[in-house]
Amino acid sequence: MVDVVFAKAFRRHVECPDAVVDAGTVGDALAAYFEAHPTVRSYVLDDVGSVRRHVAVFRNDDQIADRSALTDPIADGDRIHVFQALSGG
Questions:
Q1: d(CA 82, CA 23)
Q2: Would the pTM count as exceeding 0.90?
Q3: What is the pLDDT of residue 85?
Q4: Which CATH number fits domain 2-84: 3.10.20.30, 3.40.50.720, 3.30.70.360, 3.10.20.310?
């Protein structure tokens, strides 16, 4: 089982409670989360299913490498943390 956690900044825009899902990749974890909370999907993923430009997804302490197919592997006890990325100059 994997924890899926959203930063508080997301909660200003959409209800996104923490959840525990069963998954083997980041994509599987997010898909399971979005199945239970479908309105959150468009805040995290774009129209082709890639992580939006201003969103950062971490597996434990490491930012995921595959922002398109979301194939980064995860294991029991991992935590997926979704943040709004900071940008600008």
A1: 16
A2: yes
A3: 76
A4: 3.10.20.30
